[in-house]
Structures are given as C-alpha cells and as structure tokens.
Amino acid sequence: MSEKHVHIISFDVPWPADYGGVIDVYYQIKALWRAGVKVHLHSFEYGRSEAEELEQICESVHYYPRKTGWFSNFSLTPYIINSRKSNLLVKNLLKDDYPIVCQGMHTCAILNNRQLSGRKIAYRAANVEHYYYQALYRKEFNRKKMFYFMLEAWRLKKWEKHLSRADVIFTISLADEAYYKKRFSQSKVVNLFGFFEDSTFDMLVGKGEYVLYHGNLSVNENIVAAEYIIHDIAGSIELPLVLAGKNPPQELIDLISRTPNATLVANPSHDEMQRLIQQAHLNLMITFQPTGLKLKLLNALYNGRFCVANKEMLYGSGLDSLVDTAQSDEEIIHKIKLLQNQEFTSDHITNRRNYLSQIYSTKQRIALMISKIF
C-alpha cells in the first residue's frame, strides 16, 4: 500500500492547542498521523512560537510570516485571507502533487492560484465566517473595531463564492453543514464536527464545590459572556463561581475582584484547566454567538460533571440531550440551584460516554476525512 501524504495549511501555529481553532487543527493532524497519513504542515506565524511538538506528528513543518497591518486591509479580499498570502507557500506546495487541506477561510487564498488549478484541495470550515464577523460587530462597542468587523463581514460574504473551487468542504457543525449544502453542491459538503483530545473520558462521580466558566478571556465573545455571568448570575447562586482562561483584560480582572462570589484563574496550564473542568460541580457554557462548534463544550462533556448551556452554545452540535439547556437569567439560575445538590452518578457517565462515542468518535471521523481527501 502506497504512503498517503497531505498538506495542511493552518491559519496559526497549532501548538499549544489552547484555543478553539487550533485545538481542531492540532488534533486533526494528530488523528491523521495515528491513521498513518504523513502530514506536511504549513503554518502562519504571528505571536506564537515555532513548536518542536509539531515535528513529532508531522513529516515536515513550514512557517510563514503573516503580513499584518493596515496595508493588508486595503483590498476587497478579506483581511484574514489577504494577510496570509504567501508566494513561498505556493512554491512549497508545487514541489509535489499531494492533496491540500485549507484550515479556515483564512488560508484559502490558494483557491484562486492558477498554478494549483489541478490540485485536490479541501476546505475545513471553522464556521460560516461572515456570520462570525457579523456577530463580533453586534457585540462590539469600539467604533473602529465595529467598522472593521462590518467591513470584514461584507468582504467575507462576497469572497465566499471562491469556495466553489474546493473539491470537498468539511464542516464543524450540523448548522454549518446545512448552510454550505444550500450554498454549494450538496455532494461536496461533509460534516466532521470538531477534533479534540477525546481518547479518554475523565468524568468524576459525586459533587463539586464550584461553578466554572472557562474560555480564552482575551476574545471579545468570551469577555461578553463572562461579564454577563458576573453581572446577572453570580450574585444569585450559592455555589462559588470560578472563571478561568487566557489573558483576561484588566477591566475583567478588576470586575471579578470586586465580585464577592467570583474567583479568577488567569492563564492556567493545560493540566490545571482540565482539573478545573473535572472537579467543578457544574460547567456553565454561555455564548451569544451561534457560530461554528464550541470545542470547550465538548471538553466539558468529556471531562466534567453537569453542564448548563444556552442554545447559542449548542447550535448545530447535536449535543442538546447531554446538557441542561437554559436561556434567560432566571432559567440559568434555576438550573444551577436545581443541580447544586445532585450527585453526578456512574449512570450519567455511561449515558454520556455511549452518546459521544457514537457521533464524536475521532477514529470514524478521521477515516471519513481520509476517504474524501484521497
């Protein structure tokens, strides 16, 4: 049997796998490696260091600078794409005829490159990008950022037609699958959900002593959710609230410090974050952007006890039956109070394991991905 090789183009260095987008890329690469596929990784670098860990699961690793700044913004091409155009990347891709997987619309500039017109190219959608930027616009208060998000959403919607060049589109949620099947040929759209570390279930029976909200706290979407939880939820629940995540802004740090029932864990290590998720009595999963698939929801379901989430968090995930859904402030508070004295049992673990093993099995999903690429 001949060796299988694939080029993967990542919008960012996918290690450490510590936020949603790169979690999907890293564990996708790892699953391909475990399946015997040799991965040639091409990664755009801006703020994250080159990572030796990637050498262990990739046949080759290449880094390219991202051209950030205003110059890349003066174009009808979306900034996230224009700032990642690279002649060196194209030159490296032309050294062989292996198939290519573009991770996120950010890396899709090559779809319009005539030199690659005959190549098999797959697109891995992180979400419907113009929906994502429209949601950022609606939650932003800074006028300059609002203008950028509005402009980028418009450019992304216009540019999306070029995705028709992709031979296959891999989506990350059922909602995105439905969107792309309506937008393009149904036969080329395949839903894979998100990839993450799902090799073990690590839930604990019994009760925890706090409610946890976690996420990348430098991202506007998560800052808005954290502020909502502090203002509207924390004062009405008995269990202590722990908020954990990367690089919280000073305003959020100050807000949490002034909240009697809340504690901040800033920049926890991967192991520390997993312990926080595992030992919490309840993981509170709130977002106001129904885009993509929230991988932190999966992490909480594989490793945590009870989970309360709003419908935006569950959008297109197929996970509604595993979560206590609550939408209003009153519903969220009521659910937390209802669950705070309940024991998380071995039956809870068995039911969750059985369901997740059916629809989120990495082995099955990576086999499907490989069959479509090759």
> What is the rounded Rg?
21 Å
CATH fold group of the largest domain: Rossmann fold
Number of domains: 2
What portion of residues is helical? 25-40%
Please identify, by name, the CATH architecture of the largest domain.
3-Layer(aba) Sandwich
> In order across it, which strands form the biggest sheet?
3-2-1-4-5-6-7
Number of helices: 15
Average pLDDT, rounded to a whole number, is 93
Which consecutive residue ranges, at least 5 long each, have pLDDT under 50?
none
Report the biggest beta sheet as strand number plus sense, adding barrel if it closes.
7 strands, parallel
- Order of helical and strand elements: EHEHEHHEEHHEHEEHEHEHEHEHEHHH
- Tell me the structural class: alpha/beta
Distance between the termini: 13 Å
Strand content: 15-25%
Please count the beta strands (DSSP E, at least 2 residues each).
Answer: 13
Give the CA-based shape. globular
Could you explain how this protein is built, in words?
It is globular, with a radius of gyration of 21 Å. The mean pLDDT is 93. The protein has helices spanning 20-34, 52-55, 79-82, 87-93, 129-139, 143-159, 174-183, 220-232, 250-257, 270-279, 295-303, 311-314, 329-339, 346-359, 362-373; strands spanning 5-10, 38-45, 60-65, 100-103, 121-124, 168-171, 189-191, 211-214, 241-245, 262-266, 282-285, 306-309, 324-325. Strand 6 (168-171), helix 7 (174-183) and strand 7 (189-191) form a beta-alpha-beta unit. It contains 15 helices and 13 strands. With 374 residues, the chain is of the alpha/beta class. The protein folds into 2 domains: 5-166, 3-Layer(aba) Sandwich (Rossmann fold), CATH 3.40.50; 211-358, Rossmann fold, CATH 3.40.50. The strands form 2 sheets. Strands 3-2-1-4-5-6-7 form a 7-stranded parallel beta sheet, sandwiched between helices. The protein has a 6-stranded parallel beta sheet with strand order 10-9-8-11-12-13, sandwiched between helices. 40% of the residues lie in helices and 16% in strands. Helix 5 packs antiparallel against helix 6.
